[in-house]
Every structure is written in structure tokens, then in C-alpha cells.
């Protein structure tokens, strides 16, 4: 199993869920921009599940050395890489903030995804799971830079799913709504619309087993986003969302 963004609480919860359900992995490759944090998780799954893993440094803001990935093979890829960035007005007009949001959520991530997708295609099997966001369903003034990057990532996953379908590779797009994670710590989130990492992992694992194409972590978000997507633009542009 390949995990991109393995410091993510959702990614770690999914790894544990898969192991608890009896999934067998010769090795789990934990890609991370924080080796120390990820090595603690690697020790945890070794002790709890006797699961062998390897921690690999991956910083999308630096040049990626693809040669180090050459011997990595797996039947599952779980991508939880994401960066919310600064959503204030100051953040909106901070070009460094904008570049970082777009780079991490899309432009620097897609080439890495493609590298491994090609391996899946050549083997003609496997599952790719990508965490996008409900923010990508429609641009809203509160987070439209992040939302636009996630919209691009959602479109990428959709196209990848279409391309890999007849190569026997399944691509699952996951759209979490509010998540109780480090990335959202301190934000005023509605608890009825917020999922824990464990809840998200259970939902994602179920969607994976059912070979779903798109899954909202909490079903209510599917309803919410249908409503938001269908608000006429002449009304929508006046709303404070």
C-alpha cells in the first residue's frame, strides 16, 4: 500500500481500518514531509499489527526524485495530501500562499499520482483513492483558492478513473466535508456536519469495498452540495458562503 500524506489523521485511520479488516500488505510505503511524525506511526502499526512499513520523505515544494520510487509496487494507493492555506483576505492576495495551495493540492501532486498510476496500469489491477473536497464542488468566497485546486484534483481523478477503467484499475474520489483534524483545528465547525478521522476511514473503506466512484464522508454533504451547485448564479454571487 502506498500512502501519500501519511501524517494525515484520516490516512492513518484508514491504514488501521484496512489492517483491522484483514487487508494484507507486504509493505506499506508511508510518504511524508515529516519523517519523525510518520516514523512514530510506522512503529505503532508494527507493534499493533506486525505490519512492515517504510517511511519515505516527500516534499512537494521541493524537486521530487522519482528514481527512489522505481522499486515500489503496490495494489493500493491512498492519497491524503492537502493544504488548506490561509483563507483570509490577506491570504487571498498573498501570492506565496496561493502558490502553495495550488502546488500541494494539485500542480505538484498530479505528477506523483501519475507516476504510480502508470505502474497500476501496467499491472492492470489495483485501487487508487484520492481525497478531494466538497470545496471543489463550487467556488465560494470563503475558500475559493483552495476550492479551485480541489476542483482541479476532482476533475483529474474523474479523468483518471475514466482512463483506467478498461485497464482494471479502480479510482475512488472521496469528498470529505468538515473534518476534525489538525488542518481545521480552531475553525468554528458545526459538529453535526463534522466527521472524525475514524468515521471518515470507515466510510472510505466501505466505499472502496463497494467499488464506488465518488463518496461523501457524511451523506448529508451530498445533499448540501447538490443544493449549493444548483443555486442560480445571479443569487449565488450575492451569498456569503
UniProtKB/TrEMBL annotation:
Question: Which UniProt keywords are present, listed alphabetically?
Answer: Membrane, NADP, Oxidoreductase, Transmembrane, Transmembrane helix
Provide the transmembrane region boundaries.
Answer: 214-231
Q: Does the keyword Oxidoreductase apply?
A: yes
One of the record's GO molecular function terms:
oxidoreductase activity
UniProt similarity note: Belongs to the short-chain dehydrogenases/reductases (SDR) family.
Under which name does UniProt file this protein? Short-subunit dehydrogenase
Q: Which organism is it from?
A: Chryseobacterium defluvii
Amino acid at each position: 500500500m502506498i500512502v501519500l500524506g501519511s501524517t494525515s489523521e484520516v490516512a492513518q485511520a484508514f491504514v488501521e481500518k484496512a489492517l483491522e479488516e484483514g487487508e494484507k500488505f507486504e509493505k506499506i510505503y508511508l510518504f511524508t514531509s515529516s519523517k519523525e511524525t510518520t516514523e512514530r506511526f510506522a512503529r505503532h502499526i508494527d507493534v499493533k499489527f506486525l505490519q512492515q512499513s517504510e517511511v519515505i520523505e516527500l516534499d512537494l515544494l521541493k524537486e521530487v526524485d522519482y528514481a527512489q520510487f522505481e522499486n515500489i509496487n503496490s495494489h493500493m494507493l491512498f492519497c491524503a495530501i492537502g493544504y488548506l492555506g490561509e483563507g483570509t483576505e490577506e491570504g487571498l492576495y498573498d501570492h506565496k500562499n496561493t502558490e502553495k495551495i495550488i502546488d500541494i493540492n494539485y500542480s505538484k501532486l498530479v505528477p506523483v499520482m501519475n507516476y504510480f498510476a502508470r505502474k497500476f496500469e501496467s499491472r492492470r489491477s489495483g485501487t487508487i483513492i484520492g481525497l478531494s473536497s466538497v470545496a471543489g464542488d463550487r467556488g465560494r468566497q470563503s475558500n475559493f483558492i483552495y476550492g479551485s485546486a480541489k476542483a482541479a484534483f476532482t476533475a483529474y481523478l474523474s479523468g483518471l478513473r475514466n482512463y483506467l477503467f478498461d485497464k482494471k484499475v479502480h479510482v475512488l474520489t472521496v469528498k470529505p466535508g468538515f473534518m476534525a483534524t489538525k488542518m481545521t483545528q480552531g475553525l468554528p465547525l458545526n459538529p453535526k456536519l463534522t466527521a472524525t478521522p475514524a468515521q471518515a476511514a470507515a466510510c472510505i473503506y466501505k466505499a472502496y469495498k463497494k467499488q464506488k466512484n465518488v463518496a461523501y464522508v457524511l451523506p448529508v454533504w451530498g445533499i448540501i452540495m447538490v443544493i449549493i451547485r444548483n443555486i442560480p448564479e445571479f443569487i449565488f454571487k450575492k451569498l456569503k458562503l
